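hey so u asked for the seq, here:
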Amino acid sequence: MPRRREIGFQATESSGTVSGILDIPEGARSLYVFGHGAGAGMRHVFMEAAAEGLARRGIATLRYHFPYMEAGRRGPNPRPVLLKTVRSAVAEAARLAPDLPLLAGGKSMGGRMTSLAAATDALPRVRGLVFCGFPLHAAGRPSAERGAHLADVRLPMLFLQGTRDKLADLELLRPLLRDVRPSPVLHVVEGADHGFHVPKRSGRTDALVMDELCERVATWTATLA
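ran it, C-alpha cells below
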C-alpha cells in the first residue's frame, strides 16, 4: 500500500462524498484527523507542510474537505453539516487505520468544529485534540465566547498559537484554558500570525516554525500513550 493515497467518504447523508488524503508513514504511532480552515482546503501549503512534518515524526494524517470546499463554494456549510463531517472523518480514519490511536483537530475552523463535535458527544477512539491557530474570536472583536464549550470536551488538548494571531487574543485564551480539565497545553510561537507566518526580522522562516509545531505535536502525542 502506498504511503499516501486519495480517498473519498460520505460526509453527511445530504452532502454526499468528500475527498480526503490519507498519509500513513512506515512505523506510524498515531493518526491525526486534520480539518482545514475556512478559506483554504486540505491541499493548502500549511496543511501539506504539516502532514509532511508529522509523517517524519511517525504521525499519520487524514486531511479531508468539508462539503462546501468540495463543491468549490466559498461560504462554509451550516454548523450541523460541519460537525457531522468531522464525525464522519473520524469514523473513516478509525475504519482505515484500526490499529492506530486517533488524534483530531485542525487548522482554525477545522479545529474549532472538531472541538464543538467533541464537546457535544465523544469522538470514538480519539485520545486528544490538536488545534493549529484556534479561532477564539473574529478579527478586531476580542471575546472568549467561542471557547466556552472547551470545558465540555474532557480530552487532552494541545493549542498551537501565535502571538500575532488576530483571531485569538492570548490574554483571553490563557484564563479560559485555566478552567478546563484535563489541563490543556498551550504552545506559543513568538511573532507568528494566524497562518504561522513570522516576519523576516525575527530571523526565523516559516519552515522553521513548521518544524517547531510538528515537533511539539510529536512530543505531546507521546505523553498520551
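The radius of gyration is 16 Å. Residues 206-224 form the longest helix (19 residues).
lmk if thats what u needed
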